[in-house]
Amino acid sequence: MSNHIHYSALNLVPIREGSNEKEAIAQMTALAQHLETLNYGRYWIAEHHNAPNLVSSATALLIQHCLSQTRHLRIGSGGIMLPNHAPLIVAEQFGTLNVLYGDRVDLGLGRAPGTDMATASALRRDQHDGVYQFPEEVQQLLQYFGSETNQGYVKAIPAVNKQVPLYILGSSTDSAHVAARQGLPYVFAGHFAPQQMKEALAIYRELFEPSQYLSEPYIIVCLNAILADSNEEANYLATTQAQVFASILNGRMQKMQPPVQDLTQILSPRIIALAEQRIAGSLVGDKTTVKEKIKDFITHYGAINEIMTVSYIYDTTLQHRSYQYFKEVMDEINHS
Q1: Are 214 and 183 in contact (CB under 8 A)?
Q2: N or C end of the chain: which has fewer CB within 10 A?
Q3: Which DSSP letter does residue 255 get?
Q4: What is the pLDDT of residues 202-258, one digit of tens each?
Q5: Which residue range is the domain that position 183 belongs to?
Q6: Over the stretch 172-216, which tens digit does the pLDDT of each residue have?
Q7: Torsion angle of alpha carbons 195, 32, 313, 267, nearest 10°?
Q8: Using CB atoms within 10 A of its CB, is residue 50 exposed (0-12), middle (13-18) or buried (19+)?
Q9: Residue 237 lies in a domain
C-alpha cells in the first residue's frame, strides 16, 4: 500500500466493573504512557456528561494530566463538544495547555452536546442554537488561535498566535461539509456510527478547499480494535465491547464488564443484533485477520490518513497488548 497510514488512540475513560473513578483515570494515564513507548501518533480523550460509567466529563483536565505524565505523545480532545462551551473559554484552556506543553496539544471539535438534552441544558449554554452555530464557532476558534493582526477586541489570552491544530469530528455527513469548507482535518466516528461513513468521507474529499491549515484532505477514521493471539481469543475479549454497546442501547450505562463465553446468556437476540450493527466495522482478530480487515476497509472506503482506535478490553494488560499488536500490524502495512 503506497500511502503511509498513521495510527492513534481514543479513550472514553470507562470505569471497569469492580473499579472506581480514580482507578479509571490511573488506567487512562498508564495507557498514555504505554502508547508513547509504542510511538503512537496521538491519544485523544472524549467528552461525555451524565454518564456514570465514564470519567470523561472534564476533558481538558484529563488532557492536562496525561500531558504532565508523558514526554512527547500528542494528546488532545476527541472531542470538545462545542455546543457545551463558549469558544473563548476553550481557546483560553487549550492556549494555556500549549504554553505549558508546547505543540503537543490537539483540539478535536464535535457539534453535538454528547449527552441528553436535560444535561445539555444544565451545561448552561443554549444547546438548541449551539449545534447550528458550529461553523461560526469553529471560525471563532481559528481566529482566537491565529495571529495578533487578526484579533478583535476580545482576545483569548494566552491562545493568540499559538495555532493549536483543530480537527472536525463527525458521525454523520453534516460535519463533513464544515471540515471541507474550512479546510480542516476530518475525523469520522466509525467506532459507533458506521452507517454514513462512506458518504461523509466522499463529501469531505469532494468539497475540500485548501486552506492555510491544510493543503489537501486529511482523514482520520475512528474504529474499534481488539487484537489477540487468536481469532477465538479476540472474539471472546470482544464480548466486553458488545456489552458496552448493549448497555448504551438499553439506557443502562453500566460499568465495563468482563468478557463472557456466551452473550446469549445475558443479552436478548435483538440487543445483540443492534449492538453488532453499531460495531460492524470493528477490527477484531489476530494480527493476520486484522491486517486483511484494514486492507478491505481501504478498498471499500478509499484512502485514509490515519486510523484512531478504541479498545474496550476489560483486562488492561490485554488492552495494552492489543495496542502493541495493532502498531505491529500498521507497521507491516506501511512497509509493504
Answers
A1: yes
A2: C
A3: P
A4: 999 999 999 999 999 999 999 999 999 999 999 999 999 999 999 988 888 999 999
A5: 6-230+282-335
A6: 999 999 999 999 999 999 999 899 999 999 999 999 999 999 999
A7: -50
A8: middle
A9: no
Cell numbers 480542516 correspond to what residue?
184
Which residues lie below 8 Å from residue 309, measured CB to CB, with a gap of 6+? 7, 8, 9, 10, 222, 223, 224, 225, 283, 323, 326
Work out whether strand 105-110 and strand 6-11 pair parallel, antiparallel, or are unpaired. Answer: unpaired
- The answer for 35, left when phi > 0, alpha when psi is -120 to 50, beta otherwise, is alpha
Write the DSSP string, 288-313.
HHHHHHHHHHHHHH---SEEEEE---
Burial class of residue 329 in the structure, from the number of CB atoms within 10 Å of its CB (0-12 exposed, 13-18 middle, 19+ buried) = buried
Domain count for the chain: 1
pTM above 0.90, yes or no: yes
Is 247 part of any domain?
Answer: no
Cell of 80: 470538545
246 domain residue, yes or no? no
Question: Could you tell me if residue 263 is inside a domain?
Answer: no
* CATH number of the domain within which 183 lies: 3.20.20.30
What DSSP assignment string belongs to 96-161?
Answer: HHHHHH-TTEEEEEESS-SS-HHHHHHTSS-HHHHTTTHHHHHHHHHHHHS-GGG--SS--TTTTT
